[in-house]
Every structure is written in structure tokens, then in C-alpha cells.
Specification:
By secondary structure, the chain is α/β, with parallel strands linked by helices. The chain has two domains: 192 residues, no CATH class; 116 residues, Immunoglobulins (Immunoglobulin-like, Sandwich), CATH 2.60.40.10. It has a five-stranded mixed sheet with strand order 9-16-14-11-12, with no helix packed on it. Strands 1-2-4-7 form a four-stranded parallel sheet, sandwiched between helices. Strand 1, helix 1 and strand 2 form a beta-alpha-beta unit. The two termini are 44 Å apart.
Amino acid sequence: MHENGATEIALVGHSMGGLLCRLLLESGRYDAEPWFGKINLFVALAAPHLGAPLALARIFGVDSTMGISGKDFAKLARNRDYPSGYQLIPAPGEKAIWDTASPDLAALDPYDTGTAKKLGLVPDLVARANAVHEVLGKGNQPKHVRYFYFAGVGHKTATRINVSLGGAGAVDHGKTVVTQTPDGGDGTVPIYSALPHIGQRQLVVNEHSTVFEGLPFKRVFYRLFGADAGPPVEVSGGEAPHMTVSLSIDQPVQPVGQPIEVTLSLIPPAAGPGEAPAQATATSIVGKFILDLVDDAGNVVERGHRETPLSYEGPGVNRLTTYLPPLEKPGLFVLRFASAAQAENDVRFAVSEA
């Protein structure tokens, strides 16, 4: 871009890409480059600025997904050629590991060498994670760059790891438990980690890998670049039949035999010229979730493989989280919602053995 004559540069980073953008901006290594002063905007999309306890769960071998067992995750994480798993553990100072065997729920510091060994962590990989956060923790945000943070919400998310150490010489991770907090983030990154600093923030209801989808995101994101996709606001009131419905699940790969968390959001239509923004809550939502079985190419193999009715009557809501019955066999699926409201999207996901 700079070589082609760009006068302004924006950086957009999703997930760990957001950390890479910050390392470029804040390390001091690139400040003298001729293009550095042209960067005027950094947009972080669900970036784990303060880490993600889910990374610890996988390093400890207590989380399985995508057909990868916890044991295999632990083995992969120990590979020193690929330190990214460790670079996602909670940042220094984050008290994300609790010792449930201690009388006062003491927090354990994975960056302490002795504690790291008791937890079964690889010390030199911990050191590499610490090196990343030493840069990010200095507060060296360039004053000429605007920082804007997007966080995904609406899904249960790992927010801490509970181990049983007490006076033992090492942790038995067979007793380790992951705390999954309802509505704690996007299913991967907790809200607190995606919004690490005072500044401009936007929360969107979406899963980690699709946080950049949906009208609430687009209406704000487009405005950051001078475009207009409709009013960048969400307010209260209204009736569901006049709204757009958006679906989101907590993770793109669901385990066999586990209920599937689904969040349904109501999105108001864009207001016309001179009109006040439409409102988006409802006291009644009636419809049904429809699962289609698809093949590897996305072609429908069995339409209406399963249907689950939804009927809500109560206080006005602008989003609703529910659980679909578990699926007992692996496969690829498309989830739709049929109701009087217009559906903005469907959700494609896989079901796999743990």
C-alpha cells in the first residue's frame, strides 16, 4: 500500500491477528519505517489481548474439539516450533488459574518457573508467551493511531481454569475443571480480554470465528472506513415480526452428545432518511430451528433432518439463548430459523467425536 502511494493505512486483525498488529504498532521496531506514520486506524476483532483461559485448557489436555482429543491438544501444545498456543495463555497478572485445593482459592501464576513446572507447562514456551506480553503490556500505543475494539458476546466462554494443587508436587489434570461462564464472550475469547483498555468498543453477538458477520458489526465497521450500512445503533422496543433475526452458536465444531448453544438476536431494519432508528426487542418469539444435513461440498443431503420449536413469551428481549438437543452422530449441518421474522443468516457447523 505504501509503495503504491497510500496516504493512510488501516490495520484490521482478527483473533491472534490482532496481537500481531499490536506487536507491529507497539514494539518500537518499526517506528522509523516510512509507512509507520501513515497508519491511522487499528481495528481489533475478538483479539485475546489478555489471553484466553481456553488455551490453558487445551495445553492441560482437558478440552477436546474438532475431533482432536485433549491428550493430542496437550501433545501439540508442547511442540516448541509452534508457540502460539502458549502465546494465548492469560497475560501476566491475570488470575485465571485457581487452586481449588487451597483454603482461600489462591491464584497460581503460570509465569513463575516453579509453578509452571507443577502445572506441567514447558518453561521456555512460557517465556516466549511472556515476551509477547512484555511488549503489549508497556502501553506503547502510538498516539497517531486510533484503536477500536470489537468483542463477541452471547456465548458461554472459558473464563478460568480450576486446578487442585494444594501441597502436592504437581497438578493432576484429571481433576482440572474449566469454568464456562454463560454469556462470558464469544465462545473462545472472554469479553474482558477482547476489551482490554479504555476506548471505543463495540459488542456484537457472535461466535469467535464469525464475529465479523451480521448487521450490528457491519454498520459500525463500515462507518470506521467512511461508508454507510445503516444506523450504527441498537435500541429497545418494537415487535419481532418486523425484525431481522440473526443466529449464532458458541463454536463451529460441536461435540457429539452435547446440547448445542444457540443465540438468536433481533436486528432492526435500517431507518430511512430523517427517520429515527428502528427498535428491536420483542415480548413474543415463536418459530422453529431447522437443521439440514449437508455433505462436504455444502449440498443438502437431508433437508429438515431435525426441527426444534421455540416459543418465548415474557419481558422484552433483543436476544435469546437456548439449547438444541444433542446430535449423536458426526456430520456437517446448516441451522436455520423459521418464523414470521426475516432470517439474516444460517449457521454452518460440524459435529465430531471428542
